[in-house]
Amino acid sequence: MDPRRLELLALLQCRLGSFGHFDCHSLLTCLLASTHAGAIRQCPEGHIFCAVCYIQLGGGTTACPTCKTKLSDIRIRALEKIRDRNLKKSQAAAGRLNDAGALVVSETAAETQDSTRAVADSSIPAPLASAEAPSAEAAGQEAVTAAHVLLQLTHCTNRMARCHISPTDQGQEDTDDAMAAAPNDLALLPQAIVRQDVQAAAAAGASMSVNTSDGIAKKKKSKQSRSDPRSKPKKKDFEKVLERMRAEPANANWQRDGFHALHQLVIKDPGNQTAIALKGGIRVVVAAMTAHARHADVQQQGCLVLTNLCSNNAYNKTVIVEARGISVVVQAMKTHMVNVFVQEQACGVLASLSVSAANHMAIASAGGIRVILAAMTAHVFHAGLLQQCCGALANLAVDEDNQMEIVAAGGIQSIVVSMKAHAEHAGVQEQGCAVLTNLACDAESETAIADAWGIEVVLRAMMAHIGHAGVQEHGCGTLGNLAENADNRIAIARAGGISLVVEAMQAHTSRAEVQEQGCLALSNLAANCDNKTAIADAGGIRVVMVAMQVHAGHTGIQEEGCDVLFNMGRSDTRLQKSIKEKGGVGVVEAAIVALELNAPCTMQARALLRKLASV
Fold first, then answer.
1. Mean pLDDT, to the nearest integer, of 406-423?
2. What is the pTM of this model?
């Protein structure tokens, strides 16, 4: 139905208990019970009242029976003006005025007079019904005038200024159907009204419609029987978003807004991650980014959505790779190199995808490593971007070929510069140390990191962020790998690295990762004779034994702990006594039980027990 007519009929609808206009026909009946000059009012929420009902309800001193708000004196002058303006036309249509201007009641009006008065009297409160009855001429005139007002309203919706009520119930919709079916012949409308038992229809709650052929009203089926809401499942919000994006692929603003909506829906409900992918959402995102490659906002929002969709979701990562999402993201970084926001979100996608080792080669082949390093150089002062870049490089550096490419492209210098520029940013320090840990895998890289002042940068990060477990974990890991080089062992010890490792282990006793990497660092540092004494003096023996006792079921800590104690007590009797006095025998025996399947470690541990037994 035309929305304008729907709004008009909503304005006509009113539910007021015993005084309520349950349909358009009873509204006409109520108009017959009042005078033409009576004011038509509404409550603040838009429910309307004729003059009779308004007075019966207390004239503004009580609450509206429908919305319970206090009645006001708001008049609907649009209805009143239409009524007054068409009064003369209504009289002419009903009774055909004579030359003197006197009303000549038509035969049809005279026939319907009694039934019209009966309907009107049934709706008038007792005090009003007992008033003097109007003449036959006036009754006929009122019947046709009210009918003409209603019909006129249905054709004048463009001139209505106020419509406050929304059709929310069954009665309203059925009234709409009745009005849609009503004939345009003015003479037929009053007959349909007077033949209807309004009170019975209202009491039964039945919806009525007018038969255009004979004016007989009949019941219609309820809304529930006409349309079963279960017959068609409701579309989810993300499905609506994807439909809109598919409908206008060339509209960049729609695609950008769609990305933002998907981002919010994934944050609101992580379960939408896989659901969006199953509905083809990832391919829609990649296609939009491809079509609008030069639109920075589309690229930024698209990368943000991809990051959310592939976070901790292996299936979605596979779909993104199959949809050529990696090359699209890399191209976005190349096209919008000066846009730091695009760079940050794109690096976030690559960092998330690079968690899977299967994607390392694909990212490197698409030029991902070099474009990440270029972003770090171009935006060295943007900490958020550098954190994402270092995170992606840390994952990619697990692969040996990628390690070589990162070092060859100047990655070590870029990482050290980034860590120096953002010494106070824990995220940059953590991810920077993680990259250096994975790059320090051979003698050449270990030397290159030390020459680039990498040792000093790592120690500075650990000192500044002693309470950050991630920084301490990766810092100890970097020192442990660098300490495989003899020169680096001396440099780390001279720079105070031993005491920092011990402090890190003491500060994060419950963090297994920190304990394991700390034991690794102390084990390699203990390969230097001078460092053994420094470790013992710093409390290294005790902190290692505590780690092994607290994490008795952690094989990595047991292995690295046994290595530390073995290197410490292998040839120094004084240190052997110190280990034995601190309860080292029991700790090593427990480690042997935990490492029964690791023959090399248990063999080393048993050798240490024999040395401890001899002192």
1. 97
2. 0.64
